[in-house]
Here is the input.
Amino acid sequence: MPFKRYVEIGRVALVNYGKDHGKLVVIVDVVDQNRALVDARAMVRSQMNFKRLSLTDIKTDIKRVPKKRTLIEAMEKADVKNKWENSSWGRKLFVQKRRASLNDFDRFKIMLAKIKRAGLVRQELAKLKKENAA
Amino acid sequence: MAPKRGTPRISRNPDLIRGIGKYSRSKMYHKRGLWAIKAKNGGVFPRHDPKPKPASPAEKPPKFYPADDVKKPLPNKRKPKPTKLRASITPGTVLILLVGRFKGKRVVFLKQLPSGLLLITGPFKVNGVPLRRVNQSYVIGTSTKVDISGVNVDKFDDKYFAKVAEKKNKKGEGEFFETEKEKKNVLPAEKKDDQKAVDAALIKSIECVPELKAYLAARFSLKAGMKPHELVF
Here is the structure.
């Protein structure tokens, strides 16, 4: 199976280890076989090992090592934030974070809601079964 | 005529450095006006004889000397403070009890008693937990808070929860053969009324929050997949 996501200038990646865990960064330059120069709006441009990065589908259109302002404009143009939040990966991460921060009371309310929903589904299913049997 | 003790005595000799005053002995003599006091008293510094002490009764030698010299322990003036409350536990917090008869119950925290124990209530109508004391260590503090402003808990302290001292039966042979008197601990009506008074205000504020009453009525338990060290309470 061929690779689909390549390391290239402008590739948006997710940091999966370290201090900046969970942040989206843009690959701005490649240092050597293992490391890339990486930049984002809210961080100082720094080098990161590729092992710390998970490549995403999103790409921005930049030249090698752009100025910070140019980079931010390019990110806006490619609409990185919205694309990420609407992607299934981005949504999954958000849900995981939300679940992890749930209060004990929240968990109780969710349990009640789940039971209620299951009850409704079962009612509908019973109705459909009856119609089918008739 | 006692001198006025209103103002504290200030030194007329300011410090240049600690231990060294600005003025010499002779200058200070003049500053303090000792020459004027002497002049008023005819060239001699006035001297007051000590007041005659009232005659004290002759002390008798003690009748009893202890055989050994017993060392007296040093006086201990420490006053115990109530234990420091965890930051997550404030009045109105919902707590999860971890031990005892009511383990797993979610309960409302009212105040910390002077002994350090926490005063909690179910409320009784909601989950069967009465006004009770509980140790901070056996409790998880959740981040859910109940509005406790309508509740008056001033009358509760550790003495309220002390065991009632039973009257001691005089020793008698007849008593040994009789069956023990009923050991039923009937809760005095006064305590029941206290419970009702506290709970009335609490239940009102609990019903303002949707599903909070059902939450307090349910017990907490760990289910599959719940990792306590990762849970946010």
Summary: The mean pLDDT of chain A is 93. Chain A touches chain B at residues 100-105, 108-109, 112 (CB under 8 Å).
